[in-house]
Predict the structure.
Amino acid sequence: MRFILMAFCAVLSVCGNAQQGMEEMWDKSSAAKEHPNIQWFKEAKFGLFIHWGLYSQLAGTWDGKNYYGSGEWIMNQAKIPVSRYRKVAESFNPVNFNAEEWAQLAKDAGIKYMVITAKHHEGFSMFDSKVTDFDIVDATPYKKDPMKALAAATRKRGIRFGFYYSQFQDWYEPDGGRNTWDFDESKKDYQKYYQKKAIPQLKELLTNYGPLGIVWFDTPGGMTKEQTQAFVDELRVLQPGSLFSSRVGQGLGDYKDFGDSEVPQVPIKGAWESIYTHNDSWGYIAHDMNFKSSHEIIRLLSNVASKGGNLMLNVGPDGKGNIPYYSIKYLKETGAWLRKNGESIYATTFGQIPAQPWGVTTSRPGKLYLHVWERPENGSLLVPGFGNAITGVYALTDKRPLPFRRQGGDLIVNMASLPQEYTPDKVLVVAYRGAPPAYDAAAPVTVSPQYAVNNVDAVFAKTSGAAKTQSLTYSHYFGDWKHTTCVTGMQSPEDAASFTVRITGPGDYKLILEYACPQESARQEGRLEVEGKTYMFRTLRTSEFDKSAPLMFIKHPVTIFSAKSAGIYTITVRPYRQGKELFKLKGIIAEPLK
Ligand code: FHN
């Protein structure tokens, strides 16, 4: 098992996590290297992130102009001078902030830990700091420290409390990172900033707010390994039990944070976290209404858990201290789902069965949880490669037993007795005896006529020649990050991507390539090969790969493939002749035709 998981990490290292070069290879799996207090984190699965600062008061608008993207970056985006930005504090009066209500919302949502911005890149301290007067107590009419009350209310409900702290970027300070519109970068003394503000403030946070579950660092800047180690050592002694996030830098954190809005597509060992925001922005923007429904949150949470990690979901309260209506509504609905289905999430490990067209799996000893997002048309749910002795299969919420049978090495669960409303987000439990089956990283991707769409993602490609699998990072608006794994580097016929699929029923399947293709790559010929036949296509233009714009993918139907029987097939994609990179291939979609 361990070997297989290490292989997954090798895949990822090829992918290269692209969080602006700030992520490191992560290997803390040996007990000796693990933080002694890491277990609660591994079991928690669901955290609440809160971005709250002066930017919340601005709500995405400055000088009458609306800004899109990440609201906490408005000072940077609008290049607001420090002299004007500090005046925002004069109108920041979050009188509606209610620590008990926030903590109760977290409790109702099934949250196990909370991390809130003590100081974001804007440099404003949301706590009572003796290091600066640019803080909520000294600079605003509010004059109180909301963090004291929130830490207490959160802990009272059994939820771990933690602080986000931007240890390098500080746009308010002449020596802080990345304010280039007020200060000359070449004259900055970052060490002075660490010594005079970051370290003293972190000491305040680690001293005055009780035991912290997490100190969540961000955008580490240019500290060397030795400097980072000294920084960590100086803070650690104050609270040895507190976990430090990987964005402290140089591989010295206690668990790994993936990039913003990034979920790995295969299981990952060790303690890690995916971080998403509920809408598009981390900090409050009045005109950002793109909230994820509870249904989307539940799928995201199950998906992250199925890969072995935690989801920390962010909300952005406004300048008055109100959490957005839809965040409250959908978090509560998520909590209601978790009260019935939490056994399939909390303290689970990644699922032993790779993602299927119907959904994902999580597991604990003796139990495999099937998160059924798409119901098979004929009611027969295929769980491939599950050979353990099964003691029962049942629906999690009401323990309703379900008939099942063996078919070769597979398990087939009959869901026909469940009413239609049993999905979406229905969890079925497979109870079994013996050691958990090993996750088979080389298992073919299931393609079934029972689902409208079967995705065969690039991460499952076997590449040859110069083709490689890569995680591409780009932004939609500003300061937000999206990640898509693609096969890149296909320039000549030797540079191929091959996908092994298991087609579970005979029939016709439309094969659709999903890719991004810039102008220079468009109108080139490619080949799709399956079962000894070659199907030609010519690439269609979508967009350039530009980190600061959406990467546009097209679904390009290439051919109908008639599978005479169920079985294992290989689908290969390659350029027809030497040329520019053919495209960035996100995957293949197989659509059964009825
Ligand atoms: O720049 C920040 C951003 O504003 C936000 O806080 C996210 C949350 O993970 N972290 C940084 C970008 O990765």
Observations:
- Residues 190-208 form the longest helix (19 residues).
- The two ends are 40 Å apart (CA to CA).
- Residues 476 and 550 are 5 Å apart (CA to CA).
